[in-house]
Amino acid sequence: MRSLFLVARREFAAYWTSPVAYVVIAVYLILSGIFFFGELSRFVGLSDRQGGSGVDVNQQVIRPYLNTVSVIVLFLLPLVSMRLLSEEKRQGTLEILLTTPVREAALVSGKYLASMGLFLVLLGVSALHVGILFTFGSPEWGPVLTGFLGLLLTGAAYLALGLFLSAATQNQVVAAALGFALFLALWLANWLSGLVPGTAGAVLEHVSFAGHFFNFARGVLDTGDVVYYLSLVAVGLFAATQSVLATRWKA
Predict the structure, then answer these.
(1) Hey, how many other C-beta atoms are within 10 angstroms of the C-beta on 182?
(2) pLDDT at position 97, please?
(3) For residues 104 and 187, what is the distance between their CA atoms, to the nearest angstrom?
(4) What is the distance between the alpha carbons of residues 150 and 148, in angstroms, rounded to a whole number?
(5) Span 195-204, mean pLDDT?
(6) Are 153 and 102 in contact (CB under 8 A)?
(7) Which of 51, 110, 143, 235 stands the most exposed, by the fewest C-beta atoms within 10 Å?
(8) Is residue 43's pLDDT more than 80?
(9) pTM of the model
(10) Domains in the chain: how many in total?
(11) Are the beta carbons of 181 and 116 closer than 8 angstroms?
């Protein structure tokens, strides 16, 4: 356990000695801020036209904003996960790490925790945005909490799968490109499910990120959605651990 947290602390600190964290946070701040301002402006205009009646801030602002954030992180999190193990492989430091008492599972879990730490920083930005609404109004807490839980689980799944892709290659750019392609495919599966009839369509709907996340954004907490994301996290971490273990045997 101690080695796990040492790896996590080392990796989290490494983010801030490279441009990655700053670029990701800056882009996230700009994009999420623009979309939040747009949704808020639209809400204010709609509220003025209707005299403030029948306008739901959760439905008109928070839900669209969280849906947009879930797409933004699809593009950004491959940049967070791309270097976690591929850089170690490229520099030859992974073999050195494997000669230390650090076990494969601790190494993978530590790097995963570091990436989740950076992701929590991004979620903190969104929490500040939504917090503004509570300052000037009274949104319902339930959909907000489930929406952020959905974002947390979505990001956790992205990073776990991205960590595996990082372990599978020595090239950061390749890891990022594969991550983006995989995440986009899993997101668009929900749209494709409406075009494919029968069992294939049902399968596409089940594996889709979008379908499961939209339930959280609507304020619906379904254990099936939670299990889906946690299963992807488990698969990603297990596959990454096996990839590191294979590297140890090759060394």
Answers:
(1) 16
(2) 63
(3) 30
(4) 5
(5) 73
(6) no
(7) 51
(8) no
(9) 0.89
(10) 1
(11) no
